[in-house]
Design brief:
heterodimer, A: alpha+beta, 8% strand, B: alpha/beta, four-stranded antiparallel β-sheet, globular
Chain lengths: 305, 223
């Protein structure tokens, strides 16, 4: 067991030595892998940020139930009871008309206009959080609430939410396609690197085979190399991304000052960073495994001379 | 330990290197396989270490049928052997020490144990002072001894040497003979293929003669 562990560590050490011995080509490979990963990852970061700010603007679709102006306390109590029992309702909030007017006055800077009103034109309202935010479910709820007594109007900003959802879906698809393409590129780069290594180390492989090395023993250093190169490429992608976001945020903060809002791209979370590294390591491993089984997979028996 | 039963080997292209060879080698024997070049000496050795498979007949090593081994079992069979190749097959991109350590890596020895054994093997062949050298810096004879050190470092039960005297001079060949005899004296089965009849004379080994792929009646021992 100890010898086995030692051997693995030794393979790893030899791999590192080999990387260090050809630093230029190793750096180029790692750079190519890094760029190939940084592009889809960067796109993902932008998308994730967009999704976050969209959620802050209109996190989840809500339905506003406006009561008729002549609705009594008994009517609203009845509606409240029905909302409580309704299976499609996750929660709701009652906004009395006076409070709505006060919010309007504060929030929009229309105080003068509001003050000039002879009476409060706003109805009592319920803001309903639906359990299911799928567009069809929302429309069904809208229709159902509209049929209840003493409800004047049900408003659903479905079109906006739907457009945003469709846009984000398209973006996610684009990220998936980009990821697939660049993953292929990463595999191809690794495949080729390992192929060259196998060619240059043919003597060593042949001798090792002749004196009783197992297939696993021969494959292991190449697999380590592929995985390590993938990991380094992933780290390079992470660094490029970090730097790019950092630069963009500098620019964005100027821009957002002009607009009086705060715009900022957030960096990859630790979890996302881990996924990036695991993904790139896995692809490197896959590329080297494909290469190794392609170029070393031939018969175990080789003529000695 | 090794037995051939009516073994033939035909290479792709039709050349028949061995024809109907039957023989047995006991543990601890010292055997010379002689014959002209092309007589099948190398093929005989390759069949023992599963570097080739027989086209007919069975080769048994330690009771295992070599021709029927699964590919994954072949490496473990080969670890019973120390192989010395005609062209040495040294690795020129690493030191003498690392060349000898390779079989121990493959066999999974720990670092300390491996270093100890590598030095013991180098000492045995008289190369202890050269462990940091590259094989390219060694003379032909030293390269030969390096190849021997690599073959014996994991203490194989059977030592196979293909033309070990190669193009070495006669004085050196007799040193080599002594070296092989010393391995044989500690119980290693030694099998040497050579076209150099004089190499064998001083050592009084058993001789298996091959002639055009068949056992020659003169030197071949009946089984």
């Amino acid at each position: 067991m100890k010898a086995w562990l030692w051997h693995h560590l030794d393979s790893l050490r030899f791999t590192l030595v080999r990387l260090a011995r050809a630093p230029f080509s190793a750096l180029l490979n790692i750079g190519v892998i890094g760029i190939a990963l940084a592009l889809p990852a960067g796109f993902y970061v932008v998308l994730a940020n967009l999704q976050n700010s969209a959620r802050a603007l209109a996190s989840e679709p809500q339905l506003s139930l406006f009561l008729a102006l002549d609705a009594t306390h008994a009517d609203s109590a009845q509606i409240e009871a029905r909302l409580k029992q309704h299976p499609g309702v996750r929660g709701f909030r009652y906004v009395p008309r006076d409070q709505a007017l006060a919010e309007l006055k504060e929030g929009t800077g229309l105080a003068d206009v509001v003050d000039s009103l002879a009476q409060n034109p706003l109805p009592d309202a319920y803001i309903v959080d639906p359990r299911d935010s799928a567009p069809q479910a929302l429309e069904a709820l809208q229709a159902e609430f509209g049929r209840w007594p003493k409800i004047a109007h049900v408003q659903l900003d479905a079109a906006w939410a739907r457009r945003l959802q469709a846009g984000l879906k398209l973006g996610r698809l684009a990220v998936a396609i980009l990821t697939a393409l660049f993953a292929f590129a990463l595999i191809a780069v690794t495949f080729n690197t390992i192929r060259l290594q196998i060619l240059t180390r043919r003597d060593e492989i042949e001798v090792a085979r002749l004196i009783g090395a197992t297939g696993a023993f021969i494959r292991r250093p190449f697999l380590y190399f592929g995985a390590l190169q993938g990991l380094a490429g992933g780290a390079a992608a992470w660094a490029m991304l970090w730097f790019a976001i950092h630069l963009l945020n500098d620019g964005l903060s100027e821009l957002s000052q002009l607009y009086g809002t705060r715009l900022e791209l957030s960096q990859l979370s630790p979890g996302e960073s881990a996924v990036l590294l695991i993904f790139s390591t896995g692809l490197g491993l896959l590329g080297s495994w494909l290469s190794v089984s392609q170029h070393l997979g031939r018969s175990e028996i080789q003529s000695a001379n | 330990m090794i037995s051939f039963n009516r073994v033939s080997k035909r290479y792709p292209g039709g050349f028949e290197a061995l024809r109907d060879v039957t023989l047995a080698i006991q543990p601890g024997e010292m055997v010379f396989v002689t014959g002209h070049s092309g007589a099948g000496k190398s093929t005989l050795l390759k069949l023992m270490a599963a570097l080739e498979r027989p086209t007919a007949g069975t080769v048994l090593v330690n009771g295992q049928n070599v021709g029927a081994l699964r590919p994954s079992a072949i490496p473990f069979l080969r670890r019973n052997f120390g192989l010395i190749f005609q062209d040495h097959k040294l690795l020129f991109d690493r030191s003498v020490f690392d060349n000898v350590a390779l079989p121990l890596h493959i066999n999974g020895y720990s670092r300390g144990e491996a270093a100890r054994r590598v030095r013991a093997a180098l000492d045995k062949v008289g190369l202890l002072g050269r462990e940091k050298a590259r094989p390219i810096m060694l003379s032909g004879g030293e390269q030969q001894r390096l190849a021997i050190a690599r073959a014996i470092v994991h203490r194989p039960a059977i030592l196979l040497a293909d033309e070990p005297t190669g193009n070495l001079d006669a004085a050196y060949a007799s040193d080599l003979g002594e070296l092989f005899t010393s391995f044989n004296q500690v119980g290693v089965t030694v099998i040497i293929a050579t076209h150099d009849e004089s190499f064998a004379t001083g050592l009084k080994p058993r001789v298996i003669s091959l002639r055009q792929g068949e056992l020659a009646p003169s030197g071949g021992t009946p089984v």
